[in-house]
Write a structure and sequence with these properties.
Elements (H helix, E strand, L loop, with lengths): L6 H17 L5 H7 L5 H13 L3 E3 L7 E3 L5 H4 L3 E10 L4 E2 L13 E4 L10 E7 L13 E5 L9 E6 L4 E10 L2 E5 L8 E4 L3 E11 L3
Parallel strand pairs: 3-6
Antiparallel strand pairs: 1-2, 3-5, 4-9, 6-7, 7-12, 8-9, 8-12, 9-10, 10-11
Helix pairs in contact: 1-3, 2-3
Length: 214
Amino acid sequence: MKRPLSKRQQTILNYIKDFMGKNSYPPTVRDIQTGCEISSTSVVDYNLQILQREGYLQRRREVSRGIELLGESAASTLRNLISVPVVGNIAAGEPLPLVNTEQWNDTDFDKVDLPPFLTKGKENVFALRVKGESMVDALVGDGDLVILESIEQPQNGDMVAAWLKDREEATLKHFFLEGDKVKLVPANSYMQPITVAAANVSVRGRVVGVVRTM
């Protein structure tokens, strides 16, 4: 049986619910400190530990927005789950041969139901299963699902699913356009970037969320 929450803990829990309802993603500890007018982040952290222990939420400390509501606390954010197709695997390492990504939208795939905050409120999203460790420094590991928004024109620094036309391979990397070249950069200091002609790269999606395996 859960213990009664203190006034401050209830205020923090209500703030998290309201924030996620408005923004479709969780607040940071600093957001909570400011929004609840709390003296320090350490006080916020202490109360979040209690909320986690009592089963209201869970946290991933290595992620700045790593709060996830649980049970009844999550009801308001989980009512409208979004069904996202899992269209295949994506290499976070050496590129993998894949069916041409033009066919991703023309096939029946398994689906995963996700809360809105994981898709950042986007509608044209799909998921890929990560194979490899080249994005571990961006907290994307082997076996994780990445949620992507379908786009063709990313910004420099975006994490993207890139289709390498001449190789008929796809890879998950950070995107940088440099003149007539594209540099696809891993988030792993032990791996090297891939530099190719811009004409040979087709971006199929930009990562907006990650579902991590335990």
